[in-house]
C-alpha cells in the first residue's frame, strides 16, 4: 500500500518536473494494473469483443471481422456496433515494417503503415491507415470510444455523410457540435447510422485527415430498400483515396502560408497504399516497388466499388479502369439512375459508387488515379495505380499496360462524369445536375415551391492583408518580395470564419448572437480583411437555396463544399467564363438564364463549383442545430473558408446529453487583475474603429513572473508534506527511493524557477 502511494508520489513529481501527463499516465497504468493479457506483436489480426480487449490488443483487432459487418436482411433487428479508436501520432515505414518492401509480406505486418515507402509522421487510429472500417446496416447503433493518445493535440471524429438527426451533438465539428477532445481524454460517439451509403469518418481538427486520420464508413441497406440490388453480384470492395505528402500537414501549411512552401501533394494513395519511386537497398543490391491496393474479382460477375475521396488538398482525382467501363450508380449515399462512363472525377469529401462488369479476359488490369489541378500537369503530376485482379490471373505480376501520368483513359463515345471546372454548358462530359436521382422528388426540388431563403455565396482567393499571414506594413500582401510569398485569402462573401471558443450547439446559453455576422452586417470587407463568426440563420422547415459563385480570378482553382447535417439537391452547375462576378450571376438569374433542373435532381452533401461559374443547391432545413458549411480542402477551411447555418431556434434543438463536455475562454476575476482585453463570448464583427488594447510597459512580463512565483509556492505547499511523509515512511529501508524523492523535489523546484 505504502509502495503504491510512493509510486504515485513519484509519478506526480515526474509530472511536476516534466509536465508530461502521458508518461505519467502510462507509468501509472503499469504501476497499478494487474498484468494485462498481451498479444505478441507478430500475432495475426483477430476478432474479440472490444469490451474484452486490453489496451495493447485494441490496435491488433481486425475490425473487418466485426459482427456488424454482415449481410443486411429485411426485418432483422438493428445491432449495437462498438469500436475503440486509439488516436496517436505514429510513423510511416516504422520499425514494425521490418524488411518491407523487399520482403513484401512484411508490409502487411500489424502496425506497419507502408504508405508510399517514404518515412513521415502520421496521425492515425489504431496504428492503421486507413483506420478501422465501420461497416454496418442502416439503422444500427454505432458506438465509438475515441481515445486521444496524442501528446499535445486535440481531436474530434466527424461522420461524413451522417446527419445525426437523433443526436446532433455527435457530429464531431469542433466548436460547433462539441469541444475538441483533449490529449489523454476520451469521448464516446453514440449515434444511429441513419444515412445509408458509402461514407467515411475523419478528424475534423487541423490537418489530421491529411496526416492519416480517416477511414471508411459503409452503411448498407436491407434488400427491400436497396434500389440497386439487382445490378451487382458482389459488394465487398471500397477505395478510399488520399492525397499524400511526405511531411505533416501542419509543416506544409506553415511553409505555405508563412514561407515559400507549396501546397501541392506529390502523391496519392489508395486504401493507404501506393508507389512513389522504386526503392533501392544498395547494401544488399536489391530494388523493390511498394505494394499497391489489389481488388480480387470474378470473371463474368458485377462488382460494386465504393469510392471515398478523403483528400485534404486541391487535388481532384480522375479515376478509370483499363478495358472496363464504370456504371456510376450512387453519390454521397444517394442512388442515381446508372450512367455508363469511361472515367469519373471526384473532389475532396465526395463519394461515388460504381458497378463494374468483369467482362474481359482473365488477367490483371490497372485502376488508374490521375491527379488534377494542384496534382495536375503543371504541378506535381500525382498519379497512382491499383490492380484489378481476375480470379486465375497471375498473383505477383503487374498488369502489362504502361503506367504513366500522360495516359488518360480513352474510350470512344463514353463520357467523363463530374469533370473539372465544367458544368452543363460542356457537351463532351456529364456534370452533376445531369445525373438523375432514383429517390422520389421532394420539397427541395419542387418547382412550385419558392425557396424561403436564397443566399448568394461567392468566393475566391483575395489579395488582402490577412493578419494571420500578411501583416500590413510588415510583410503585407503587396509588400513581400517574392510572388510565391503572396498568399491569397480564401473567403466566403469576403468573410473569414472565426470559430467560437465553445461549441455553439451544446453551450447555447453562452451565445451572444449580436456577435454573429454575415455580409449584411459588415462593411468594407471587399478590400479589408474581415474575420467574424459567419452565421446564416434560417427557420426550421424552410427551403434554402444557395447559389455558390466561384469568381475564378487568380487561377483555375476549384472548391468542393460540404454541408453538415443535411443533404441537398443539385439544381444547376455552369461555367460562364474564366472569371465572373456575383452581379453577373445575379443578372443571369434575373434574366431566367440559370436553368434549374428540378425533376429527379441528384441528392448530394458535397459538391464542386466550376471556376468562373456557379452551382445551385437547395436543401430542406429540417434538422435543428448549428451546422457547418465549408470548403473540404483543409488549407482553405482552416483559414476560414466556412460558415455556419443556424437552423431553427435553440428550443428546437435536441437536449444536450447529460455531462456533455464543456469548454471556453477563462479570465480570472481574482488576483490577476492585469489581464489584457480580448474578444468575449462568440466573436465580434469587424468594425473599422476597433483598436488593439494598449499595452502598458512590461505588464505581460510582470504577469509571467508573478505566475511563476505563485506556481513555486503552490508546488511547495502541495508536495512538501507528501514527500516528507514518504521520507519518514522509508526512513529505515527506502534509501534509494528517498534519494529519488529529494531529487524529484529539487527538479520540480528548479523547473518552477527556471
Ligand atoms: Cu477551398
TrEMBL record:
CDD domains: CuRO_1_tcLCC2_insect_like, CuRO_2_tcLCC_insect_like, CuRO_3_tcLLC2_insect_like. It comes from the Eukaryota. Residues 110-222, 238-393, 509-649 form the Plastocyanin-like domain. SUPFAM superfamilies: Cupredoxins (SSF49503). GO terms for molecular function: metal ion binding; oxidoreductase activity. The keyword Iron-sulfur does not apply. Keywords: Copper, Metal-binding, Oxidoreductase, Signal. Residues 1-19 form the signal peptide. InterPro entries: Cu-oxidase-like_N, Cu-oxidase_2nd, Cu-oxidase_C, Cu-oxidase_fam, Cu_oxidase_Cu_BS, Cupredoxin. Belongs to the multicopper oxidase family. PANTHER family: FI03373P-RELATED, MULTI-COPPER OXIDASE. This is Laccase.
